[in-house]
Amino acid sequence: MTVRSIKLPDDFPIITEIIPKAFVYPENPEWNTAAEVTSFRETMQNLQRFWLPLSLLLRISPRLADIFRGYIWEEEGQPVGLIVYQRQGSTDTWYISTVAVLPSFRRRGIAHHLVTTALDAIRQAGGEMTLLKVITGNQPAYTLYEQMGFRHFTSDLVLCYDQAAPPPEIPLPDGYTLEAGDLFNWSLSYDLMQRITPAEVQRYVPVRAEQFQYPKAIRLFTPLVERISGTKQHKFVVRSSAGEVVAITDYSVRRRSGGMNQLDPNLDPCHASLAPSLIQHSLREMQHLAPNRETQVVVPQWQQSLLEAVYAAGGVAQKEYQWMAMNLHRNPLTQPQ
Q1: Global pTM value
Q2: Alpha-carbon gap, residue 208 to 216, rounded angstroms
Q3: Which homologous superfamily does the CATH classification assign to the domain defined by 163-314?
Q4: Given this structure, which CATH class describes domain 2-157+323-334?
């Protein structure tokens, strides 16, 4: 048995091979779609292809230095598991994005060891809080993380919109205006999320400006990043009659065959009547830019009006993610439930 740090770009093929094999759920095939696998494989291949300019970006922007950390577990020289984690902006919060172990090597403590190794490294880097998410119904993973000290604090619902025709346009209610958003105007998203994120969520993940601020170098490399991901990023903003931002929708559309579109809407619950217009307009725009493509919509469970609007438009629930957190400087057994 060997645990070693991930080395890029050499380990991209290993990551590309292990993750799709590890995240296979025969009893719940809807948890992973062919479009998701296609998008993942293509992204990994292009990361390897464009690693030279990307590595330059990581060097000139210290805030991006911790964007791709991780470890690989090997048995007799064969990679059988891995963990990937990254810092959220320049905050002291870290996110474990992937814990993957090949099915034939499970129940041997590999995942536990990988998570423990990552947590030790995060502590040494000054991390205060670590986040991860697990699919509702994946009880072995949930139980493992709970036993290690992670606590569930909120959930996201992932819905799939896969209609051949775009939904009908629903006009905005009187007094609201819609405008194209600047991808790099981070303050609008920060102000909105600080205002609307529930206190019980901010207890674990306070909304901080550092989460939203983009390093200046990102602006220069955005075309390259979009080429790697095969997507084009868009944003639009809705304002009230008083000029206050009450909704922001970020979405990415595929520019190549295969893969899927992604929609991430956020709405001030005090303006819930906007939800149908917001969702219908977003889906129509995405269908126009990338027609005949599956769209994945991610909505926090506390955004009830948005969930209802996606269902009304024809969206279907695909899976639910439970967000879990661990305070690294508190006894795991005494963390708040």
Answers
A1: 0.90
A2: 18
A3: Gcn5-related N-acetyltransferase (GNAT) (3.40.630.30)
A4: alpha beta
